[in-house]
């Protein structure tokens, strides 16, 4: 048993292959003073090499193995190494040890391959490491380990298949912590760490920071601690999983040979059979499930539930939740709160329930219900069915042919592409058909209906509505109340129905029929037709035609109303008015004078007996002094 002390007066530097700078025998003690240097430059040459067990080494100076495959220090058996704050140990492997050894590092241990390599083969081969300094490089230990880190480890830590302990509550480690086999315990610090439990009954505690914890097989206790952590359960086992403070995520990985889905209720904090073990789950906000048919239920927190593949059932319950069905046919319920639902691939059923929810159908033919609240629904691709239900909702059909039902409230509906059916129902709604051939019904309320592109059909129904056909050949029906209709471009057909309506044909060749009421009609550009199919009344049913052009426009008179006009044609095959039945001026001088134009007032009359015995009834008011002739009238 020898005692050695090295300082600047007796530095050692070697250059030979496999020749250490200093070699110790059993129970020797070496102190390298702050001014001391032990340097091995040769291949396979170590700075300090212990030839036997029981050595004691204190490093205050510098130990280095700068040659290829050199160890800074080699320890055997029950040796003890202390690196003071002024000490530095450097090598391809900083320290290599076998047997049961203790290391206290206050300075720096550095290894270009590994900083520490413990080659123990049994539970009796224990590495006891207390680090308050810097360890630069990986730590690998195949025996048992008990590690306390209050300093810095600048790489990964991989422990053996025995019962290991890592305590890093006040330290920093930049790489992963892999516990492998054995009943291990690992406690992280304030920073974000990644821990792998491996086989055995492990305890993983992330401490602070956004940690990533992998449970592994065995009966495990996993605690994320503070910070937004991600915990992955990747084996069939009975685990206790605690998310800890902040917003935490639990992932159930698909396990080879297991084809059942996950069943998990986050509101249950006692043990539950998840299909992946009898697990006790608490303080978890977000769950990512398996590739199979999962059933996930949220709690009072703002949950994020992801079904991935399989026919999943997701219930958000309380809180502002995000539900993502993923692939296959899923069922999603938002519950209370302002929720976000994503159907993914597959014909999904989605219900926002209470709150101001946002629903995305995404791919395939989905059914989406907004529920109460002011909801936003975007169907995505596929022939979808959308129900706004209560509240002031925004519903977008997206691609393909959709059905959209607004429900109650003042809603905004847009069919997108495809041949859509759009129903405003109650409330003052805005309906946009989008491209292709759409059919719109305003329902009850003062609605705006816009056809956009395509040959659309717009029905105002009840309420003071505004209808705009947009491009192409549209059919617009006002419904009741005083409505405004604009055909836009294309050969449009406009019906005022009841009420005092305003009809604008727009560009191209349009057909305008005011229906009952005192209507205002303007054909616009093109060869327009003005239809009269209801019994005229001087008090309640006289229309104004603002821009009748005798060169281009015509009037169609329905024989069922104007019976005295004789032969009846059809809308597609009208019959020109008999020349004898038209006259200009109020002087009725023939029994055949049935259609009378007063050019001074611009009023057009109908006289049912042609003699004036029955008072002529005004049909419409036109511009004054038009050069009207019988050629401008047809009987249908």
Automatic annotation (TrEMBL):
Compartments reported by the entry: Secreted
Which Gene Ontology molecular function entries are recorded, alphabetically? calcium ion binding
Please tell me where this protein is predominantly located.
Answer: secreted
UniProt keywords (A-Z) are:
Secreted
**Which InterPro entries does its entry note?**
Hemolysin-typ_Ca-bd_CS (IPR018511), Hemolysn_Ca-bd (IPR001343), RTX_toxin/Mannuronan_C5-epim (IPR050557), Serralysin-like_metalloprot_C (IPR011049)
Q: Which residues, if any, are the signal sequence?
A: none
Query: GO cellular-component terms in the record?
Result: extracellular region
The protein here is known as Calcium-binding protein
